[in-house]
Amino acid sequence: MKAVRFHEVGGPEVLQYGEVEQPNPGAGQVRLRVAASAFSAADNGMRAGFLPIPLTLPHIPGYDVSGTVDAVGEGVTGFAIGDPVIGFLPMGEDGGAAEYAIAPADALVSAPTGVPLADAAAFPSVALTARQALFDDGDLQADQRVLIVGAGGVVGKYAIALAARAGAHVIATASPRSADAVRAAGAHEIIDHTDTSVLDAVSEPVDMLLNLAPIEPEEFTNLVALVRDGGVVVSTTAWMPAPDDADRNVRSVVVFVRSDAARLAELVGLVDSGEMHLEVTRRIPLVELPVLHAEAAAGRIAGKVIVVP
Predict the structure, then answer these.
(1) Whose CA is closest to 283, among 65, 118, 136, 62?
(2) What is the dihedral of CA 235, 237, 243, 246, to 10 degrees?
(3) Rounded CA gap, 173 and 190, in Å?
(4) What is the mean pLDDT of residues 103-113?
(5) Are 227 and 245 in contact (CB under 8 A)?
(6) Dihedral sign, CA of 85, 135, 158, 302?
(7) Per-residue pLDDT at 246
(8) Are 88 and 132 in contact (CB under 8 A)?
């Protein structure tokens, strides 16, 4: 089968496209005929060697995947050959940047029915990140106020939709370029962070500060003043700590997305019901994945890109 993989960490040039042996599923696993994988900044970080995720080399990237079940291993129930599925694969194992991929059966769920199967690869980890940040790590409740910094990205728009659906009041920072999309996702207030101080624009304390942006540590620390006593700071920026305020009982947590098939199935249900919408900004063939990594290393990627074998 064709795949992209790297034998050593380094720049985008370490990625190689070529023929590799087709894998076979072990106990509890299935083999997927890949419809698409989704590119993530974490893929770039693992390839470059600056994310502390243990890898077995050579490594195939692409931990968000969609496809059809092609073979099942011993003990697998609930899936049959030909079933369309999506999943968030273990990040340290081979991913979906290939024609076939191995996945733990318990990481997979039925794919959304109303979108192209390839596009559904863009959904698992970003939707899970938003859900886990708000509710599992942040314990957001109805009628609370949440400030989402960096809401214009894919995770941000999912977070807005989920928070608003839960009955929270959502304040979102966004640039003029993404303001309309943030508003459509359900934000109640939008702060243009390009010309307005967030500290000045938020008039009442918030219960949760959710940071999704690579802001400066000093700015991040200053924003904690907006959180009420006993509130929470949640961040997805794993390369930097999230500040807290122990004197006011404001806790902090950094989100590391976790595979959770039950939660992912719930989120797929929201896509099928029209309450959440998939976002795919670009589709590329597998052979062009090294070029995409080079663009990411240069900071030239926005939105969600899927990779089609």
Answers:
(1) 118
(2) 40
(3) 6
(4) 97
(5) yes
(6) negative
(7) 96
(8) no
User: Are β-strands 100-104 and 108-110 bridged in parallel, bridged antiparallel, or unpaired?
Assistant: unpaired
Alpha-carbon Rg for the chain, nearest whole angstrom, is 20
Tell me the pLDDT tens digit for each residue of 242-268.
Answer: 999 999 999 999 999 999 999 999 999
Residue 114 Cα distances to 111, 165, 272, angstroms? 9, 20, 6
Q: Looking at the predicted structure, is the pLDDT value of residue 159 above 90?
A: yes
Token pair recorded at residue 66: 């969609």
In this prediction, residues 46-56 reach a mean pLDDT of: 88
| pLDDT given at position 77 | 93
For 234: left if phi > 0, alpha if psi spans -120 to 50, otherwise beta; the answer is beta
pLDDT digits 0-9 by tens, 77-104: 999 999 999 999 999 999 999 999 999 9
Location of structure tokens 């930097």: 240
CA distances from 126 to 154, 164, 169 (A): 7, 17, 21
Residue 303: the pLDDT is: 78
Q: What distance in Å separates the CA atoms of residue 113 and residue 82, rounded to the nearest whole number?
A: 14
Count how many Cα atoms sit within 13 Å of the Cα of residue 69 in the half-sphere of its side chain.
Answer: 23
Mean pLDDT calculated for residue range 11-33: 97
